[in-house]
Amino acid sequence: MEKNGHTNVKKLPPCRAACPAHVNVQAYVSLIQRGMFREAVEIIRKDLPFPAICGRVCFSPCEDACSRVNVDQAVAIRALKRIVADIERERGRVKAEPVPKTRSEKIAIIGAGPAGLTAAYELAKLGYPVTVFERMPEPGGMMRYCIPDFRLEKFVVENEIAYIVDVGVEIRTNIEFGKDITIESLKNDGYKAIFIAIGTQLSRKLNVPGEELEGVIPAIEFLKAVNMGKRANVGERVAVIGGGNSAIDAARMAKKLRAERVMILYRRTKFEMPALPAEVRSAEREGIEFHFLVAPKRIISENGKVTAIECLRMRLGEPDATGRRRPIPISFSEHVYKVDTVIP
Question: Which domains are delineated in the chain?
Answer without folding.
Answer: 2-90 (1.10.1060.10), 106-196 (3.50.50.60), 219-343 (3.50.50.60)
